[in-house]
Amino acid sequence: MIQIVCKSEAYTYNVYHIVKAFFPSEEMISRVEEKASHYVMVQLPDAGRILIGTGETDIRTEAVSDEQIQPLTEKELKYQIDVKLYHELKRVTGRSLAWGILTGVRPTKIAMEKAEEGWTKERFVPWFQADCLVSRKKAELSWEIAKREQALLEKLDYEEGYSLYVGIPFCPTVCTYCSFSSGALADWADRVEDYLDALVKELVFIAEKSSKKRLNTIYIGGGTPTTLTASQLERLLGCIDRYFPREDLLEYTVEAGRPDSITREKLEVLKRHGVTRLSINPQSMQQKTLDIIGRKHRVEEIVEAFSLARGMGFDHINMDLIAGLPKETAADMADTLRQIKKLAPDSLTVHSLAIKRAAKMEWEDLKTDADEIYRTLSEMIEMSKEAAGQMGLLPYYLYRQKNIAGNFENVGYAKVDKAGIYNILIMEEKQSIIAAGAGASTKIILKEPIPMPGSKKKKMTRLMRIENVKAIDAYISRIGEMTERKGEWLWR
Q1: How far is CA 430 from the centre of its chain?
Q2: Residues 262, 309: contact at Cβ < 8 Å?
Q3: pLDDT band at 63 (very low <50, low <70, confident <90, very high)
């Protein structure tokens, strides 16, 4: 058990996640004590403490004196606390973090901003290393991806263009690592049509409100959209065809993530409606792993589904892998990559395992310590990077998640002309993404900044988030409310 005490609520988020990155399997609690004598106190599992902002001598670490923390602003104070905490944790554990003090999910946004300001790689990389304590490899990766994203995003019209996300919250079974608001199809079989009724209403509303805008990308995700029957897919895609124009469409993606949900009939529907990009996601090519994580299909079915889609003319197929799944070794990942190379997908996304509260899996399921997690994941990530290069795939987008194993990242690799545009947009937040479906999150880029909703301070934002309810039955019954939420802000 690790206990964290912060003098201000403003410090808690970063402090919690930096400590969690060093101690991923430890249970943690944090609280705010405004009268505390320290900015931050971290009670470690072995009874040692880290104190930030005190002149006292600590039994476990050298204390940091108040004289060393004299910031001009609250932002500078928070930054100095993060840096000093990081160095103390590094000394205590003997480990460093690849992403240093960064706790956000979009590190490439920093690189993108600097690139747009005219910075060069030679200026950015050492600055990023010194300012955020990231490794040189991660600094170089961030810059490489930011420049590639920059070139792709130049094709888009931020002002008049938008992207559409459609969420299908059903899967054949729910994987143990999954924290999305999806449910097993067997539990919702009698409500799928009701869900589609509600979804169609929301899509028609979005189409009417967006009729003067240019639709650049469509992404149908979930869940597993191909859990729907062929006739249900026909109904959904037919609705999109009917109400949304295609003149400016650059990409149309459907996640067909589970091979046990893919049939020739369903692929014919997708092909007929002009879907340009499929995602067939094995996560692992090890049968023992598929069994552990709750995937009720065989490795052979992954190969069969991929080959079927390729044979039907789909020339942009993405595959997802997860590094760090329970009981997987570096040798297992090497074998998975060997099999993936034979299939030769057009893009490959490699995730580092992230275990969230809503998932069935817990850190105890990994049955290994933080050092072992870091070593294994580091090797797996390097293998993936090398394998992607051998397949002619270049890194084009990157994001991180809370509670990600080893404090690593998720990287998308693609052939030069097969990068996923929607994936870049969801990370860089430069174009509005209008989302329909249970648990879907709309992000509207406003023309002018407005006061941040819910903020007690006078903070301004140009990004308006509108969340749909996650529960499937609530979404069905409250569909009118979902459209009203968007109506107030859509293209304001």
Answers
A1: 16
A2: yes
A3: very low
Quick check: helix, strand or coil at residue 219? strand
Q: Are residues 180 and 210 in the same domain?
A: yes
Q: Parallel, antiparallel, or unpaired: how do β-strands 161-168 and 170-171 relate? A: unpaired
If one counts every other C-beta atom within 10 angstroms of the C-beta of residue 213, the result is 18
487 within domain boundaries: no
Give the tens place of pLDDT for each residue, 282-299. Answer: 999 999 999 998 888 999
pLDDT at 185: 80
Per residue in 263-282, pLDDT tens? 999 999 999 999 999 999 99
Residues 43 and 147 in one domain: no
- Do 327 and 257 share a domain, yes or no? yes
**Residue 470 within a domain:** no
Strand 214-222 relative to strand 251-255, pairing: parallel
Asked if 245 and 148 sit in the same domain, the reply is no
Q: DSSP per residue over 319-335, as a string? A: EEEEET-TT--HHHHHH
Q: Average pLDDT of 133-162? A: 92
Exposure of 79 by Cβ count < 10 A (0-12 exposed, 13-18 middle, 19+ buried)?
middle
First vs last C-alpha separation in the chain: 48
Asked if residue 352 belongs to a domain, the reply is yes
Query: What is d(CA 317, CA 281) in angstroms, rounded to the nearest whole number?
Result: 10
Distances (CA, A) of 232 to 131, 169, 312: 51, 14, 20
What's the pTM value of the predicted model, to 2 decimals? Answer: 0.88
Q: What's the mean per-residue pLDDT of the chain?
A: 89
Q: Is the pLDDT of residue 410 over 80?
A: yes
Same domain, 143 and 274: no
Query: What are the E-state strand segments in 131-286?
Result: 161-168, 170-171, 183-184, 214-222, 251-255, 277-279
- Domain holding 353, by residue range, is 155-428
Q: Identify the pLDDT of residue 59.
A: 29
* Same domain assignment for residues 370 and 244: yes
How many distinct structural domains can be found in the chain? 3
Please tell me whether residues 173 and 270 are part of one structural domain.
yes
Amino acid at residue number 212: K
Which residues is 414 bridged to in the sheet?
Answer: 347, 394
